[in-house]
Amino acid sequence: MARRDGLLSRNDGHAEWLRLQEAVWRERSADYGRLDWVRKQDFIDRMVDFCEPEADWMALDVGTGPGIIAAAVRAFTRRVVGVDLAPEMTEAAKARHGDVPGLSFAVGNIEDLEFADNTFDLVTARMVFHHVADVFRGAGEVWRALKPGGRFVLCEGVPPDHLTRARYEEIFALKEKRHTFSEADLINLFDHAGFEDILVKPFFMRQVSLNNWLANGALEQEAIDEITRLHVQADDHFKRVYRLNQRDGDVFMDWKFIFVRGTKPANLRPEGVR
Questions:
Q1: What is the pTM assigned to this prediction?
Q2: Distance between CA 242 and CA 256 in Å, rounded?
Q3: Domain 3-160+177-205+256-263 is of which CATH architecture?
């Protein structure tokens, strides 16, 4: 298997990965907007603030899902396009935000964006890249679609520390096929794509409901039971760093996210991507 910087490359069953992701998001489209973490306003506000958007900007939201981040960014920019791999997701976004001027949605693959070079001032990606088969190609496509001086803002969930990574991966393996990133992985991804002025900022979402997360993940009961067990029977360190507690038949914990921002160099050679 070919790997670069510990992340999946295009030689690792790319077509099968893409097929699985399309199937997963077609199935999850009906429930995704009911996830508590997706709708948390402080999370949305923090990402938009980190973008530092400007009123005349043209923005792209990749893996837009129900269009929540696209709509939030549109409030501060001239126009936003949201793209998602699953047609059902773009239809949900249109139903939710279709009457917002300057906001549109389309089916699209992050790895093969159907936009001309140097189109956007800003590209956002919230909780998307762990689903992308070839993350290097995806980041490269974002870089290509950005104008010189344009900004890429990504958000990903990460294990709280290196000691919890193994159980984190075990939990998510029961839920979906995906990458697990560290902060260093994300920084390296931005650097590899050619971004400069890379900034990193953590965000902690307090006391997320495990029941809500599992109930809206299109999971079989067997998987739900095992994921719950892996939380409840975790070691003391896992429980401590997650601030995990049980009450009212649910499990609550703190989740860690990382925001990363990078800028496409303003002064580029004519040939573009390095």
A1: 0.89
A2: 9
A3: 3-Layer(aba) Sandwich (3.40)
